[in-house]
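U., I forgot to send this yesterday:
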Amino acid sequence: MMKTKIFKSVMTSFVLLTTVTLSFSQINYSASSGYYYPNTGTSNQLSATIDYDDTTGVINSFEFDVFLFSFLNTQGSFNMIAWLGGADYFPSMEFKSRSIDQEGEDLTIKGSLYFRGRYMPVTIYAEREEDKNQFTINGKFRIATSDFIKFVSPRRGIPTYLNMDFSVTFDKNASLKS
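Result:
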């Protein structure tokens, strides 16, 4: 009996989920300190997915990944996030969450960030904007470099934190157009 109940729940959730297509993305970083401070970079190659129930308006999961070498830096050709992330060996940063608290338009997204070959818990604070055609999530989070790099020191040019912000827009009607 319990297996049937779980199966029905899974099937109900599956039927209500809306397919949305990513139509815009951007992620930025800024270093908190270090030799190269202030240092910022931007990438528009952020790939993101959500599981979204259009009946209840609930976001069930959120994931993204970005190729670290895709960031353009404001300080010339030095890509700090690729250097800190060891992009030669670990070319992307990834985030996965199935824990999303929603209060109105405010989201608290708790998940796991993969960076420099390690997984660490990270909380993203975000806002959502939605109309009948698009769904946008604007979020911010902070990477403590000491969680991923053994010896963090200003003398080594390593910032204490990387402040990250992103924006992703999903086109709800893209799947209906094709």
